[in-house]
Amino acid sequence: MPAQPAKPAKPAKPAKPSRSRTATHPRRRGTNPWVPNQHGAWAMLLLPTLTGIAAAHTLTTVPIAIAWVIGYFCFFAAGLWLKARNAKRKAEYFRPMAVYGAIAALAALAAVIMQPTLLWWACAFAPLVMVAVVETWRRRPRSLASGTSTTIASALMFPVMLSTSPGALTPEGWFATAVMAAYFTGTIFYVKTMIREKGNATFYRESVGFHALACIVAVAGWLLPVSFATATLSALVLSLALVRAALVPKHEKTQAWSPKQVGLWELPLCLGVAAVALLA
């Protein structure tokens, strides 16, 4: 019986092109420890500092500002370092923490050498920084306690700057500080109602309630040794903040707002707070 011819081999199927994870789904990079990514913190960080520099007109404010801003960079890197679970990540985050910490410490030392009485401010800042550090260590960096402590610390930078100029820190300056603290603390509540606590009726009521209390701070300006212009502008700014805290989250249910939009719409109120500080 003749042998049957062998069947021709089937042509091999062309290999499917491998889909690189990098090409289609790029690997998500970790947070850059050298550059803080909390963009909403910049207004809170800089507004009291810059208005304080403008009002004080002293050279001592320069190293204070450097220590404050670079200190924030150090705190951001330290937060990442505290949350890191493996040695490689901790080593990656330790370097910016150490570099920024050294720069901030040198700037603070220079400021104290120029004006030793600045050391008294450590009594006010130490407990506030401690609260923020503990909350970060507990992995709750965005808690109300952490946010409130940092906003109060930021507002205090205004009287710190004024204290470098003899006679500049007046009751009106303290009033402007209270307005700053009330406004920026209110933004913590407001932003949460727009993003993390969106739809939470209880938190919404707490936010509106806090903003109503903040308005009382402004109204008190007419009863204190504060100029009519400062008191009136403060009342206007904090009243507008109350209106937006009450109305915008309700409107957001029908039209979603991005974090960027929320931040941009805060600019007019920030400018109003800056004007209050410059009038003080």
UniProtKB/TrEMBL annotation:
<protein>
    <submittedName>
        <fullName>YwiC-like family protein</fullName>
    </submittedName>
</protein>
<feature type="transmembrane region" description="Helical">
    <location>
        <begin position="262"/>
        <end position="279"/>
    </location>
</feature>
<keyword id="KW-0472">Membrane</keyword>
<dbReference type="InterPro" id="IPR025576">
    <property type="entry name" value="YwiC"/>
</dbReference>
<keyword id="KW-0812">Transmembrane</keyword>
<feature type="transmembrane region" description="Helical">
    <location>
        <begin position="212"/>
        <end position="242"/>
    </location>
</feature>
<feature type="compositionally biased region" description="Basic residues">
    <location>
        <begin position="16"/>
        <end position="30"/>
    </location>
</feature>
<feature type="transmembrane region" description="Helical">
    <location>
        <begin position="144"/>
        <end position="162"/>
    </location>
</feature>
<feature type="transmembrane region" description="Helical">
    <location>
        <begin position="65"/>
        <end position="82"/>
    </location>
</feature>
<dbReference type="Pfam" id="PF14256">
    <property type="entry name" value="YwiC"/>
</dbReference>
<feature type="transmembrane region" description="Helical">
    <location>
        <begin position="174"/>
        <end position="191"/>
    </location>
</feature>
<keyword id="KW-1133">Transmembrane helix</keyword>
<feature type="transmembrane region" description="Helical">
    <location>
        <begin position="119"/>
        <end position="137"/>
    </location>
</feature>
<feature type="region of interest" description="Disordered">
    <location>
        <begin position="1"/>
        <end position="35"/>
    </location>
</feature>
<feature type="transmembrane region" description="Helical">
    <location>
        <begin position="94"/>
        <end position="113"/>
    </location>
</feature>
